C-alpha cells in the first residue's frame, strides 16, 4: 500500500512538472513582408444630402396634412396647414385698412381742399384788383390812406390763406400716402404671418417621416417632419479629438453597415467641421460614397476606418510582440531596439532593427 502511494505521488509531480514546462514555453514569430494600412476609427450615421428637420414658424393645431411619408416634394410645396382663423381675420382687417387709406378712398378730402384753394385764389385775385384800383385812386389823391391800408391788408390776408390752403393740400397728400404705405406694410406682415400657418418644404426631396398627426398641437421648438434628398446620401462620422489632427480632406474611408452585412464600401472625406462637441469630445466629419449602395435610408448606422497611410509591401510584426519603448525580445532573450512605422489594430511596421530571419518571443503577461 505504501509503495502504491509513493508511485502515485511521483506521477503527480511528473505531471505537474510537464504542465509547468508547457506553460513556460513562449510563443514565437518572425517578421513578414505584407501590406499594412494605418487608419483612424470612426462611427456615425447615414444622412441624405440636405436632410433637415421641418419646424413650424407658428404655434397652432394641425388642420390638414397634405403629404404622406415617401412622397417626393419640391422646394416651396405645402406640407401641413395649421388652423389660422385669427391670422386670416387680421389679414382681412389689414386689407380693409389699406382700402380705407388709399388715395381713391380719400378723394373727397382732397377735392374739398382743392375747392378751398380755388376759392382762396379767386379771393386773392379779387383783392389784388381792388388793391390796384385803390392804389390808382390814391395816386390821384382820391380816398384816404386808411382805405389803401385796408385793401393792402385784405390782399395780404388772401395771399396767406391761399398759401395755407396749398400747404394743407400737400400735407394731406403726404398723410394719405404715408397711411397707404403703412397699411400696405401691415397687410404684407399679416399675409406673412398667415403664411406661417402653411408649413412648406425648404428643399427638393423626399418626406421620410411625419412626426405629428391631424389635430395635434405644434410649436416652434418641436420638429414635425424629416425631409432629405431622395437619391444622394452622405456619411456623418464622429472622430475622437485624439485623432482629428491626422484627418485631411480627400482621405479614403472604408466602412461597413449592419444593414448590408458582409459588404464593404468606400467613401471620401469631404468636410471637417472645425468645432469639437464638448460633451462627446469628438469632431464631425462629412463624407460621400465613392459608389453608393442601391438601397439606403436615413439614420442607418455605420462603422468606418479613415485611411491615414498605406504601404503595399513592408516588414511587420504583431503589435502584441512589441515591448514598451519599441523593443522586441529575441529568441536568445536579448532585448533589441527597433524603429517602428505604420500601425494598425493588429500589426506594426518595422523600419529598422529586424529582418525576416529573426525570431522574436511573445512577451509573457
Count the helices. How many?
Answer: 4
Structural class: alpha+beta
Low confidence ranges: 1-5, 12-24
* Order of the strands making up the biggest sheet: 2-11-14-13-12-15
| Average of per-residue pLDDT values | 84
Q: TL;DR?
A:
The protein has 365 residues and is α+β, with helices and mostly antiparallel strands.
Task: Name a few traits of the molecule.
365 residues; six-stranded antiparallel beta barrel; 34% helix; 32% strand; disordered N terminus
Can you put this structure into words, describing what you see?
The chain has 365 residues and is α+β, with helices and mostly antiparallel strands. It is 34% helix and 32% strand. It has four helices and 20 strands. It has helices spanning 2-24, 85-101, 107-139, 145-195, and strands at residues 28-29, 32-48, 52-54, 60-65, 72-73, 78-82, 198-200, 205-210, 217-218, 225-228, 233-240, 252-257, 265-272, 282-289, 301-318, 327-330, 335-337, 339-343, 347-352, 360-361. The strands form four sheets. A six-stranded antiparallel barrel has the order 2-11-14-13-12-15. The longest helix has 51 residues, at 145-195. The radius of gyration is 46 Å and the shape is elongated.
Amino acid at each position: 500500500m505504501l509503495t502504491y502511494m509513493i508511485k502515485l505521488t511521483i506521477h503527480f509531480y511528473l505531471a505537474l512538472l510537464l504542465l509547468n514546462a508547457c506553460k513556460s514555453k513562449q510563443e514565437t514569430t518572425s517578421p513578414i513582408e505584407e501590406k499594412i494600412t494605418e487608419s483612424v476609427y470612426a462611427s456615425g450615421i447615414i444622412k441624405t444630402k440636405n436632410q433637415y428637420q421641418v419646424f413650424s414658424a407658428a404655434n397652432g393645431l394641425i388642420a390638414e396634412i397634405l403629404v404622406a411619408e415617401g412622397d417626393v416634394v419640391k422646394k416651396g410645396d405645402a406640407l401641413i396647414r395649421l388652423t389660422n382663423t385669427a391670422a386670416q381675420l387680421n389679414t382681412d382687417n389689414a386689407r380693409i385698412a389699406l382700402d380705407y387709406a388709399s388715395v381713391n378712398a380719400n378723394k373727397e378730402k382732397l377735392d374739398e381742399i382743392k375747392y378751398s384753394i380755388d376759392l382762396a385764389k379767386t379771393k386773392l385775385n379779387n383783392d389784388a384788383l381792388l388793391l390796384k384800383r385803390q392804389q390808382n385812386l390814391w395816386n390821384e389823391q382820391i380816398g384816404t390812406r386808411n382805405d389803401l391800408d385796408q385793401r393792402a391788408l385784405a390782399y395780404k390776408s388772401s395771399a396767406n390763406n391761399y398759401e395755407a390752403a396749398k400747404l394743407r393740400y400737400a400735407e394731406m397728400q403726404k398723410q394719405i400716402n404715408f397711411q397707404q404705405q403703412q397699411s400696405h406694410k401691415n397687410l404684407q406682415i399679416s399675409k406673412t404671418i398667415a403664411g406661417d400657418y402653411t408649413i412648406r418644404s425648404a428643399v427638393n426631396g423626399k418626406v421620410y417621416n411625419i412626426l405629428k398627426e391631424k389635430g395635434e398641437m405644434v410649436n416652434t421648438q418641436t420638429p414635425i417632419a424629416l425631409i432629405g434628398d431622395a437619391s444622394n446620401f452622405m456619411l456623418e462620422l464622429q472622430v475622437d479629438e485624439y485623432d482629428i489632427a491626422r484627418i485631411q480632406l480627400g482621405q479614403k474611408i472604408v466602412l461597413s453597415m449592419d444593414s448590408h452585412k458582409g459588404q464593404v464600401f468606400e467613401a471620401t472625406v469631404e468636410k471637417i467641421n472645425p468645432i469639437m462637441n464638448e460633451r462627446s469630445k469628438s469632431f464631425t466629419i462629412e463624407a460621400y460614397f465613392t459608389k453608393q449602395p442601391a438601397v439606403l435610408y436615413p439614420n442607418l448606422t455605420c462603422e468606418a476606418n479613415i485611411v491615414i497611410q498605406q504601404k503595399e509591401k513592408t516588414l511587420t510584426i504583431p503589435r502584441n510582440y512589441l515591448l514598451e519603448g519599441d523593443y522586441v525580445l529575441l529568441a536568445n532573450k536579448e532585448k533589441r531596439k527597433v524603429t517602428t512605422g505604420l500601425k494598425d489594430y493588429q500589426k506594426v511596421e518595422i523600419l529598422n532593427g529586424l529582418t525576416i530571419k529573426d525570431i522574436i518571443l511573445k512577451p509573457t503577461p
